[in-house]
Write a structure and sequence with these properties.
2 domains; 8-stranded parallel β-barrel; about 20% strand; single chain; binds phosphoenolpyruvate; Alpha-Beta Plaits; binds manganese (II) ion
Amino acid sequence: MIVIMKHDATTAQIANMTARIEGMGCTTHLSQGEERTIIGVIGNGRPIDREQIERMSGVERAVAVLRPFKLASREFHPQDTVVPINGISIGGKPLTIIAGPCSVESRAQLLETAEAVQQAGAHVLRGGAFKPRTSPYSFQGLGEEALRLLAEARSLTGLPIITEVISPELVPLVTTYADILQVGARNMQNFALLHAVGESQRPVLLKRGMMATMEELLMAAEYILSHGNQRVILCERGIRTFENYTRNTLDLSAVPMLKQLSHLPVIVDPSHATGKWELVESMSRAAIAAGADGLIIEVHPRPEEALSDGAQSLKPGRFAALVESLKPIAEAVGRTL
Ligand code: PEP
Ligand code: MN
């Protein structure tokens, strides 16, 4: 249920309402907009008497939230969420570009890429340390050594870093280094991991599972939010369909749909969505035009030598040109870059 307070409701009336709901054994989530305050109510399984709530002073009306995701829903939190991360933020008017290699392969490879993407205008540096590979014989990542290199790249460039965490046991180690924890598509419904990243209180980039519906993605976000961690960013990275010319099918309609259903920022990963560097530029532009809050793009100085995802990685020069080409599109949709 959400309780919509009158626009002139006093602080005392809001506090009174919150105390009353909590006294019934429910949890409250306050959303203070410019116009009015909304109190989100997570029930305790027992029915709540809506009319009784509506009779309290300062209340305009109480409405049942029918969707299974509550904290992630726009009803609970009408304003867009802006996620602050070490000096930058994701969501709101400015777009966020995350870029870097699929995997951290060596100090030279990472630092060269980090400097190039920073100069091209990226805001966050990506790089996999623990890689969730389809084959156990493929490169699995450099582990903690990669985390140390990412931290070094952060101090050289000033860019916050994002890296994937693939199991709950690794959350303490990865949070020692990373500014944003990435939950990969293969782990979107690893509920133990969702609980652990929720408890960490770190910003989390949650990727849509390969065969997940938008509702399943939002329910996964709900796990993280239920720990009081409100810094969740959703990522559309393509879903599996019958089409084989592309690695996945980029579901661009997920961008406006998720933004309608939820207040959380939504970014797009055109690299994993297409699997082909030649398609990354056009899909990046389309994603921004569709209302995405940012992009996560794989960049490698020598894609032909990459230990993972070379075929979908842009060279630094093309990445720089892409960022430039996004500027007029950002402006056309009322965003800044
Ligand atoms: C990645 O970002 O390198 C990655 C493995 O992505 P996804 O989880 O979307 O496949
Ligand atoms: Mn990759």
